[in-house]
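Q: Please design a sequence for this.
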């Protein structure tokens, strides 16, 4: 197992190195002059950014000081998000690049003139042509001198003379000849394609970051339950999942979530896991605004997989101090239905996994039931125990590409409400973000689930 992990790590590092080399080639080498300041700056940037990205990904698990995690998190995670969109954008550019080169070429062929003329190269003085041995009977190579002159002009103009394979042919023209085609076409195309790819990636990531930082939006869903008592008709549960407090999202984000929930005036608040990415010592103060949650029947909490990466026992105690009630494979009776909660399956490694027998085994099945479980994959257990509605998170709705493709394969429901037999499953996209503070096509949400009685 250790060997497999090492090999997998080497493959990932090799893949990242290859991707960054490709990005450097297209955005730096192909668009800048050799040995110039822009090329040096671009090269340094594409060495530092991947190091920050790796630091952001591993610093938390490696136990690095929290201040260091905060330093590397923003630039590292944002670069990861940019890379996810920049790389495919550049690959699309590979198809566009030859088309852009052909357009001016065809136009030039029809007009008989070049689209990018270069200045007329003046004749090389005879003394310069003669070379150091003025009395020699051997004629000097005037073409070589002309080549040097054009190359010098191109360098003074900032042209990437090694980016176009046609440059050598053009610069071999006799002195005094006006060259029909300049050496900048390939450079121009590289800059257009690279600039468009970079603009698309940065624009997408910028919009996705704004979506996270503005806070989650409220969604409202009505779920009819056959066994729900008439008196519980219209009961509203505010579902919040995947807040992911950590080096990036902190106390201000928590306060935005609390304000949003309180504005909905729910009957009950359900926090369905992945509240944090870090220890109580580092993030306890960031979670404190949760003590301000208000509802008629209180706030209930179940663990997610990230709690078990962050000290689940300490967090269960801490949320209890904040006025929340943890449901650790437990159940309570609310007016008109049973509310149950199970630990996340990640707790199995610590002997604290989900226990449906404890949570649901001896309940009265004539009553409606709502189950809080972080991961949607336990829906089949919920069906066996005749649960009316399971509330989950975990998937983030995919969060950003290629997340939806991966999450859809690993979970029975990516987001929203679906039915499994007589059991309904609602999956929230979450109120925060893991890793990059970016969401694209999967906006963060807090869902107010309104229970409807068929008897009403």
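A: Design:
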């Amino acid at each position: 197992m250790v060997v497999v992990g090492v090999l997998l790590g080497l493959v990932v590092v090799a893949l990242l190195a290859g991707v960054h080399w490709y990005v450097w080639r297209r955005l730096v080498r192909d668009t800048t002059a050799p040995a110039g300041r822009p090329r040096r700056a671009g090269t340094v940037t594409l060495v530092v950014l991947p190091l920050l990205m790796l630091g952001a990904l591993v610093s938390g698990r490696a136990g690095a000081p929290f201040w260091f995690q905060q330093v590397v998190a923003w630039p590292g995670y944002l670069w990861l998000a940019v890379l996810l969109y920049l790389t495919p954008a550049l690959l699309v550019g590979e198809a566009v690049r030859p088309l852009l080169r052909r357009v001016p070429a065809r136009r030039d062929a029809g007009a008989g003139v070049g689209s990018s003329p270069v200045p007329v190269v003046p004749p090389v003085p005879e003394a310069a042509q003669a070379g150091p041995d003025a009395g020699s009977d051997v004629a000097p190579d005037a073409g070589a001198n002309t080549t040097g002159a054009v190359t010098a002009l191109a360098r003074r103009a900032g042209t990437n003379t090694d980016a176009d394979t046609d440059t050598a042919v053009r610069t071999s023209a006799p002195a005094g000849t006006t060259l029909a085609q300049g050496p900048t076409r390939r450079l121009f195309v590289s800059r257009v394609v690279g600039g468009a790819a970079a603009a698309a990636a940065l624009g997408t990531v910028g919009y996705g970051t704004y979506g996270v930082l503005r806070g989650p939006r409220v969604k409202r869903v009505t779920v009819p339950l056959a066994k729900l008592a008439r008196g519980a008709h219209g009961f509203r549960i505010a579902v919040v999942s995947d807040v992911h407090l950590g080096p990036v999202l902190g106390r201000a984000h928590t306060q935005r979530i609390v304000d949003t929930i309180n504005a909905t005036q729910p009957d009950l608040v359900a926090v369905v896991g992945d509240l944090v990415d870090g220890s109580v010592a580092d993030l306890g103060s960031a979670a404190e605004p949760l003590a301000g949650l208000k509802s008629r029947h209180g706030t209930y909490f179940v663990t997610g997989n990230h709690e078990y990466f962050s000290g689940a026992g300490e967090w269960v105690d801490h949320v209890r101090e904040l006025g929340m009630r943890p449901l650790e494979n437990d159940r309570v009776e609310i007016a008109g239905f049973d509310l149950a909660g199970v630990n996340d399956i990640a707790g199995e490694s610590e002997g604290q996994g989900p226990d449906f027998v404890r949570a649901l085994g001896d309940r009265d099945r004539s009553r409606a039931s709502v189950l809080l479980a972080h991961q949607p994959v336990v829906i089949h257990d919920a069906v066996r125990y005749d649960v009316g509605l399971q509330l989950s998170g975990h998937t983030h709705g995919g969060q950003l590409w290629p997340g939806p493709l991966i999450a859809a394969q690993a979970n029975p429901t990516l987001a929203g409400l679906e039915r499994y037999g007589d059991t309904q499953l609602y999956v929230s996209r979450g109120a925060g973000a893991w890793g990059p503070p970016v969401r694209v096509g999967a906006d963060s949400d807090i869902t107010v689930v309104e229970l409807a009685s068929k008897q009403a």
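Q: Thanks. Anything notable?
A: The first strand starts at residue 217 and ends at 225. Residues 111-121, 123-183 have pLDDT under 50 and may be disordered.
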